[in-house]
Protein 1
Amino acid sequence: MTIGCLASASGAVSIAGIHWYAGTGGYVEPNCPCLAICFDNGKCQIMRYENDENPVCIDSSMNVVSIQWNHCGSVLAVAGSLRTANMEKEFNVVQFYTPFGEHLRTLKVSGKQMWGIAWEGGGLRIGLAVDSYIYFANIRPDYKWGYCCSTVVYAYTKPERQEHCVVFWDTKNNEKFVKYVKSLMSITTSGDFCILASKGDETLPQEDAELEAVCPAKYVLILCNSIGTPLDSKYIDIDPMFVTLTKTHVIAASKDVFYLWQYRVAKKLTALEINQVTKTKKEGRERRVL
């Protein structure tokens, strides 16, 4: 097994923890990294399998004592100690990461020495062994959900499926409609509609072939109604970290770019809306602003 995270490390290091998430709660996306190896110098490596040639490498910049995945493999907790900038004081911390190495949160813990960490079965609490005590901390996951037109839209993973299971629950009639989406990133709702943002599927046909050849789309925005029926979609080439929805437009933004899309739905238009649509056709329905 090749350990790429230690390429620039010097001196003796030892393994602080190994945890392989077995997929019992499903995966956040297909082919997701799930084998985590962490060393006491803070270097971590997350792999898809034991011979992964492109692992995710993390430098937590801390002295690591224990690591563990949550119940569904969406969050890796790295426990240990961290020194302050002036190196005069050391304090206990737990760092939380996604399987792709994105840092989520830092939790400071009182006490002299942390010895271990464990997740509760449902992923809503963690137990921390510090000195001669056991501390418990509540975890508030970032759920994918929304509410539109008396319908609650929420997503979760299943062990037998690679996709996210997206449920449209009509709270008035107590009816549920299920839709499966690969690599779901977020759910955004407003009024009567819902936007599902996900990573693009290379096997699907994409719009604007000439544009895609120059700048291939990596993500897709899917406009759905309250029962999960797709009404419109748009492939984009920016990471939709933030998405919002109005009656006429979808705005998606990355860290430095935002994308404006006027979506289409089948409905009767007023005279004012017809004028707006006519003007939009002349100017174009999309805007990308740097």
Protein 2
Amino acid sequence: MKPIKIIGDSLSDIPKDLVVKYNISILPLTIRFGDEEYKDGIDLNPTQFFEKLKISSETPSTSQVPPHDFLVEIETALKNGYEVIVINGSSGVSGTHQSALMAKMQLDSDDVTVVDTQALSYACGMIVVEAARMAQTGKSKKEILDRIENMKNRADHLFSVETLEYLKRGGRLSAAKAAIGTILNVKPILTIADGKVENLDKVRGSKKIIPRMIELAKERGIRKGCEIIGLAAGDNMEVLQILKEEIIREFEPKELVTTNIGCTIGTHTGPDLLALFYLKG
């Protein structure tokens, strides 16, 4: 049986220590501020990105990983004797998955499998990490793909933003709705449904975000002693610590991972995003 190489993309927001530990290849999306281009997590880390975002008069944009980047990475792995599983962030918000499929078609190899998680940030990342962990312990491709499918079907996202400004800038929210939300101090709680961002709930005021997120997680199927929970934040790590303490107290997960929201997702959410990822059931 050939060893298995796991390739992901920077939509997964996997902490660097886990990327190294499990020998995961992460291909970066591109961030643009005007004429300046940066590779997510390589040329610009989250701290640098959020500092730039706060002071820039330009609205940043993002672009997918190009097919050529996947082609080179996959070809290298195949030449080194690996089977390859490419695990992408949701095709509902990025063309990166399509790029990976194009690379696979060009290579025309049965040793390459491409997966659309329909998830974002560490909801995608936990799937990538689990697949890489299984690959390191010698699990078969079928075992890994079965586990990926199980996690895809159970992965859930709950996240909120402090300000609606970045959603407005990125065209995700009308100026009128953003203005009303600011006046009323409304904080949206969002999720991912069928691979796309959807409104789920809202609260009045920042202090109600964490309690409501915990309530929603319980309603949507999180269990005490669950196998894994991921937490993420932008430039608001002190709030993340509060969420972490509440999550440990409420759910006592077997594994808890905290991470930074990367530059790509941060482009559309702003610096004050707070997110909770877990597997239902």
